[in-house]
């Protein structure tokens, strides 16, 4: 093969795993405490990566983007299953250790994590890195970390559908079966982004997490109703609207109601069950 011939611009680059992490309410911490909080996160991540057999990936990632309140790592794909299991479980334990030792003046440390996979050129500029950033900032994962905060956990994970299929459905996780994940629409306010995310919170069942997703969706619909002159959907029986309602608004309300109905069914089966 003539290696001097340039590659076509449409050629697909190699796949990479994407790992994004973000500290909950980082900007609300006093600015003089923020560097300490970020150092605590880096220490917990380094320990979790090492214990998960990913020390080399932590020390020499294919790419890294520092976001201030977290980071995005570009990693080789072969051992990316370890980012799901055991890393999330180990990271949660590390953050529990921080909570046990932190001084009252120190802010709490809870983190949102997203894991995705996709083609990445050497420039590390691609849709995949944008998507993993959207997942970690989505309404779905924010509901997940709210559930974690309320029930004594410290980490919430959003898996992209691609990673869920390869790791969970592909049986590359011995401790995280399908029943430990909640499918949810991942959206980011102000961004044209809607994807399915698979939410997991260590030690919490999907039924418990679903309650917080419902609360978040209810607030979102209520806010949209107030802003656009519409009423929020009724708690039972259907969607009520008034005023000038666009087709998109009505569709969003119907989608939210359908999601709530599904989540009620999940909660009825799972509510209160903890997975060790």
Describe this structure in words.
This protein has 276 residues and is an alpha+beta fold. It has 2 domains: 15-204, Nucleotide cyclase, GGDEF domain (Alpha-Beta Plaits); 212-270, no CATH class. The protein is built from 8 helices and 7 strands. The protein has helices at residues 34-51, 55-59, 87-101, 127-136, 139-150, 161-168, 206-228, 247-270; strands at residues 15-23, 63-66, 70-75, 111-119, 155-160, 182-187, 194-200. Strands 2-3-1-4-5-7-6 form a 7-stranded mixed β-sheet. β2 and β3 form a beta hairpin. α1 (34-51) crosses α3, α5 crosses α7 (206-228) and α7 runs antiparallel to α8 (247-270). It is globular, with a radius of gyration of 20 Å. The chain starts with 14 loop residues before the first strand and ends in a 6-residue tail after the last helix.
Strand order of the largest sheet: 2-3-1-4-5-7-6
The helix-and-strand class reads alpha+beta
- What about the largest sheet? 7 strands, mixed
Total DSSP E strands? 7
**Overall average pLDDT:** 84
The helix count comes to 8
What are the segments in which pLDDT stays under 50 over at least 5 consecutive residues?
230-259, 261-276
> What is the name of the CATH topology of the largest domain?
Alpha-Beta Plaits
Helix content, binned percent: 40-55%
Report the span from N to C terminus.
Answer: 54 Å
CATH architecture of the largest domain: 2-Layer Sandwich
Q: What is the alpha-carbon Rg in Å?
A: 20 Å
| Number of separate domains | 2
Strand content: 15-25%
Query: Can you write the helix and strand succession as a string?
Result: EHHEEHEHHEHEEHH
